[in-house]
Design goal:
CATH superfamily of the largest domain in chain B: MetI-like
Shape of chain B: flat
Radius of gyration of chain A: 23 Å
CATH class of the largest domain in chain A: Alpha Beta
Number of strands of chain A: 13
CATH topology of the largest domain in chain A: Rossmann fold
Oligomer: heterodimer
Distance between the termini of chain A: 34 Å
Order of helices and strands of chain B: HHHHHHHHHHHHHHHHHHHHHHHHH
Bound molecules: adenosine-5'-triphosphate, magnesium ion
Number of helices of chain A: 13
CATH superfamily of the largest domain in chain A: P-loop containing nucleotide triphosphate hydrolases
Strand order of the largest sheet of chain A: 6-7-8-3-9-10
Shape of chain A: globular
CATH architecture of the largest domain in chain A: 3-Layer(aba) Sandwich
Helix content of chain A: 25-40%
CATH class of the largest domain in chain B: Mainly Alpha
Number of strands of chain B: 0
Radius of gyration of chain B: 36 Å
Chain lengths: 344, 531
């Protein structure tokens, strides 16, 4: 998880005819999004987005409706040209590719799941899933074998020869997921892929997806509205507001230290038990004056759930260890505050 | 716990839709901005218009009622201006005719002429008597003429007596128009305001001196002349007829040439020159069209008739089912039994060749126009022209360039028949959802793959409708192209027309109808299965 696969550097996107003028006005005068709208009639879709995503990482993007998530992700396969900034994918500047090179990168390296499915209505489910392979001129026998396998992954066996319109919304969404997986790309761009699914199948797909990404080292940008989903599958989460990324961090960082009121509101009400790790709420060993004889021990990576299991049976604090050595401890008051979420 | 306290507990207040108050403040500001002059009045009446629950008007605008079209022009309501200008003119003409018009003038004139003639006959009769000849014939003519003159005079009298009634209708109409203006002005103006809210740049608002002057000038230019022309008999010659001869004489040197003859001559020379210059091109085109036609003819006429019949029936069955197949069989039997077999097949070959060429060139053009907004903008007027220009107009240059016979006929058919397939292909291309195109692009589809796998399949229903329309348009040309030597059933009809032969004309007409119906049914059936 170190070499960056996707790298965005100060990417801006302004929609509208006068986007260049608006861009220079922003640079010179620092006007805000509503001012850009009233002065130039331009919508700021994404502003100063800078981040890296490394190999095998699932990078979740969250934010309210209209905050620019889809717009941001579309830059990565250049469905949208940035007004300003640079996007590198696998070390190549996407903006400088010729149209042939771009097509090749899209076909070989990237798979995308669309918020609005975007299936081909006149093709069977199987041919939809096989379409990215067909573009790459892979023979039909292999195409069909691969797409049948991908349909198996999303639990759609038996629907291969149906037309998309004969499927429910959630099933269509799964066809979209299978299509993105079928081309076996290094990078997956997923725009709310699980939003139309029921909780059971969603959970199952999330687990599968996580395993798949870990196994095949796929780099994923994953848009979701659902914080639980982001926490469950995301290695890191970016929170967007009005086109701007207001915070990037692991689930734990974001939940424990929200950057501002907006993020705090976003993450409030989330259960911290499985999320917060012992090391992030522990106190130094020296701060405890009493005896630690016979106190229960836990690894610094244990979550609050496990600490509670240990703490209920004793009056003493729980000692936190790192490779056997004690590095801190958690008292009961500390534990309760930790469950509440970082309140002092 | 009642629901309302619960709301308060949550700190969220919810207003039921029925409790929502109308907020006039924002609205008033925007209305004032729109009307500029007299905002208080218009805020008040617009509120009333907004509050109205019935379609009948509930306000009366005195300014509009008094000033009529000028109010409309002043306020930039040009629809109001023109509509009521025309209505008011009708009213004024009516009033003028009632006041100073001379409705019986035509009959009085006629009576005068008749009296003159009668006097002439009388004189002839007297001369005859004086010469000792028989004068009864002239006396009879004189009697007849006199009674006719008398009748004309009474007619004129009746009309002149009716003048007062004309005036009364004029007054009634006047009151009606004024009331309508007053009652509907605010409603119309409010609609303009609603439009202005959506499109402030493109909608006139406020009051402008320019508009006032423009409407005054228009009214003073149009109204008096028109009223004068309608109410006074035999006004200046100038108003009756456009003085094109005089203007021509002004421009051109020779006395007897007009602009019309000059430009016609000029055009004729141009066309002749072009025909000579483009000889090779036109001959090539004709040859191309002829080869397509020959292939069609070969298939339909040279093939033995039983084979063609069976094939057509089987195709109908496969494409559109047994019913259409039976109908096709009956139609073919009619055509064959009446001896129309060969000419009908010629017609089908003509139409088939035209449709083939329309589709071959129309679909690519449509795809291009569907993708390029600019190209479509340029092409659209041309397409409109191709469809609205009466066929007779372009038959002439076609004869000049391509001569007569079947190939030029096919070219004329193409001009008329091609627009629908182009238009509907373009429409279908533009209707392909952006998201699906994007998905294909995201998977690396090239332009060609995109076209083949996404755009054309998704536009196909629209393209097929276009092809079907083109077929029908081409069929409707079969009679017209016989004017420039096109053969087939059209020629039969043309001959029947020339001799006013009702029977043959009708039989031939039914044969064309049956051909059209068979083709239409088969093609539609095939398309329906395809989609
Ligand atoms: N093609 C476009 N032209 C103009 N404005 C656009 C365009 N696409 C998106 N926008 C604007 O960019 C902003 C962000 O849109 P985007 O689709 O990225 O939102 P989102 O975060 O994906 O929202 P959602 O969760 O509802 O899908 C919106 O304000 C939208 O109006
Ligand atoms: Mg979106």
């Amino acid at each position: 998880m170190d070499e960056p696969v996707v790298k965005l550097d100060n990417v801006w996107k302004i929609f509208g005819d006068r986007s260049q003028e608006a861009m220079s006005a922003i640079k010179e005068r620092g006007i805000t999004k509503p001012e850009v709208l009233s002065e130039f009639g331009c919508v700021v879709g994404v502003q100063k987005a800078t981040f890296d995503v490394s190999r095998g990482e699932i990078f979740c993007i969250m934010g309210l409706s209209g905050s620019g998530k889809s717009t941001l992700v579309r830059h990565i396969n250049r469905l949208i040209e940035p007004t300003e900034g640079k996007i590198e994918v696998l070390g190549r500047d996407i903006g400088s590719l010729s149209s042939n090179e771009l097509r090749e990168v899209r076909a070989l390296q990237m798979g995308m799941v669309f918020q609005h499915m975007a299936l081909l209505p006149h093709r069977s489910v199987r041919d939809n899933v096989a379409y990215p392979l067909e573009i790459r001129k892979i023979p039909k026998s292999r195409r069909w074998a691969i797409s049948d396998h991908a349909l198996g992954l999303v639990d759609l066996v038996g629907y291969e020869d149906r037309l998309p319109r004969e499927l429910s919304g959630g099933m269509q969404q799964r066809v979209g997921i299978a299509r993105a997986l079928a081309s076996d790309p290094a990078i997956l761009l997923m725009d709310e892929p699980f939003s139309a699914l029921d909780p059971l199948i969603r959970m199952q797909l999330q687990d599968q997806f996580k395993a798949l990404v870990a196994q095949l080292q796929k780099t994923t940008l994953f848009i979701t509205h659902d914080l639980d989903e982001a926490i469950r599958i995301g290695h890191r989460i970016a929170i967007m507001k009005d086109g701007e990324i207001v915070q990037i961090g692991t689930a734990e960082e974001i939940v424990m230290n929200p950057a501002d009121e907006y993020v705090r509101e976003f993450v409030q009400g989330i259960s911290k038990l499985k999320l917060v790790k012992a090391h992030s709420i522990m106190e130094p060993v020296e701060s405890y004056k009493g005896s630690l004889e016979g106190a229960p021990e836990a690894d610094h990576k244990a979550d609050l759930d496990q600490i509670i299991d240990l703490a209920v049976n004793t009056e003493q604090p729980v000692v936190i260890t790192d490779s056997g050595k004690p590095v801190g401890l958690i008292t009961k008051p500390r534990l309760l505050r930790g469950i509440q979420g970082g309140k002092e | 716990m009642t629901p309302s306290t619960e709301e308060q507990d949550n700190g969220i207040s919810v207003t039921a839709a029925s409790d929502i108050e109308v907020d006039h403040e924002q609205l008033d500001i925007s209305i004032a901005e729109f009307v500029e002059r007299n905002p208080d009045y218009y805020q008040n009446v617009f509120h009333k218009v907004h509050a109205a629950t019935s379609p009948l008007p509930n306000t009366f605008n005195w300014a509009a009622a008094l000033l009529g079209p000028i109010w409309g022009g002043f306020r930039g309501a040009w629809g109001f201006f023109w509509g009521f200008l025309i209505l008011e003119m009708i009213v004024w003409v009516q009033l003028g005719r009632g006041l100073w018009g001379n409705p019986g003038a035509k009959f009085e004139e006629r009576a005068e002429g008749q009296l003159e003639k009668a006097a002439e006959f009388k004189q002839r009769a007297e001369e005859a008597l004086a010469a000792g000849e028989d004068a009864t014939r002239f006396e009879k003519l004189f009697d007849n003429m006199s009674t006719a003159a008398e009748r004309s005079l009474t007619e004129a009298q009746i009309l002149n007596d009716g003048k007062f009634m004309v005036f009364l209708t004029g007054v009634a109409l006047f009151v009606l128009v004024k009331l309508t203006q007053g009652f509907y002005a605010n409603k119309i103006y409010e609609r303009q305001y609603s439009k202005w809210r959506i499109d402030p740049e493109g909608t006139e608002s406020g009051v402008k001196l320019r508009n006032l002057v423009l409407s005054l000038v228009l009214v003073t230019l149009i109204a008096p002349l028109t009223i004068y022309k309608f109410t006074v008999e035999s006004p200046f010659e100038l108003l009756n007829q456009f003085p094109e001869k005089e203007i021509s004489g002004y421009f051109l040197e020779e006395e007897n040439e007009t602009l019309y003859t000059e430009s016609a001559k000029w055009l004729e020379d141009r066309i002749d020159a072009a025909a000579v210059a483009g000889q090779g091109l036109f001959d090539g085109l004709t040859a191309g069209v002829r080869s397509v036609l020959e292939a069609m003819t070969l298939a339909l006429i040279v093939t033995p008739w039983p084979v063609v019949m069976v094939v057509v029936c089987v195709v109908a069955w496969r494409a559109a089912g047994p019913r259409v197949s039976i109908f096709t069989g009956a139609a073919l039997a009619y055509v064959a039994l009446l001896g129309y077999w060969e000419v009908s097949m010629e017609t089908v070959a003509l139409v088939g060749a035209a449709v083939f060429l329309c589709v071959i060139f129309g679909i690519p053009l449509g795809i291009w126009f569907g993708k390029s907004q600019r190209a479509y903008k340029i092409a659209e007027p041309v397409l409109d022209l191709m469809q609205t220009l009466p066929a007779f107009v372009y038959l002439i240059p076609i004869i000049a360039f391509f001569g007569t016979g079947n190939p030029p006929g096919i070219l004329a058919t193409i001009i008329f028949g091609m627009p629908p397939v182009i238009r509907l292909t373009a429409l279908g291309m533009r209707g392909v959802p952006r998201t699906i195109i994007e998905a294909a692009e995201a998977f690396g589809a090239s332009k060609r793959q995109l076209l083949r796998d996404v755009e054309i399949p998704l536009a196909l229903p629209s393209i097929m409708t276009g092809v079907n329309q083109t077929i029908l348009m081409c069929l409707s040309m079969v009679v017209i192209i016989s004017l420039i030597g096109g053969g087939g059933l059209g020629q039969e009809i043309l001959i029947a027309l020339q001799y006013a032969a009702k029977g043959p004309g009708l039989l031939g007409g039914i044969a064309i109808l049956l051909c059209a119906m068979v083709i239409d049914r088969i093609v539609q059936g095939a398309f329906r299965r395809e989609i």
